[in-house]
Hints:
Blueprint: H1 3-9, H2 24-32, H3 37-42, H4 56-61, E1 64-66, E2 73-75, E3 81-82, H5 91-98, H6 103-127
This protein binds zinc ion.
Amino acid sequence: MEIASFSATQSVMCNKLSKVGPTGAVRALSQVVLRTASARLSTFQRWERSLSSPSAQALSTAGFIYRGVADQTQCISCFIVLSRWIPEHDPDFEHRRHSPTCEFVLNRQSESANRMQSSHVHSFSSLRTPPDL
Length: 133
Ligand SMILES: [Zn+2]
């Protein structure tokens, strides 16, 4: 059991293994097919760690595919491999932390910034709604 060392090393549990060069097949796939979250999710069919790691859904949304080995996940954009997930990990956050210049990460960030902006606009406009007379 590794529970004793859990809290002390929690922040570094999600280790960057290496920038594993993808095989030609993965690279070719990643260019087209795996650009959609649902396609990436389909690589998690053998993901048996839903209780000890973030969900396959969360990982695929964050840009990862499952490599089919242990709990190694790989980004389809920057090809970084992350493993040793624990449930407390936020796949988006870990992706950004280990690969801040990843194109996928940057796109996700601007997407969420846009979402926040539009929700601000929305709450402003509802504030300005005149009361019923
Ligand atoms: Zn990436």
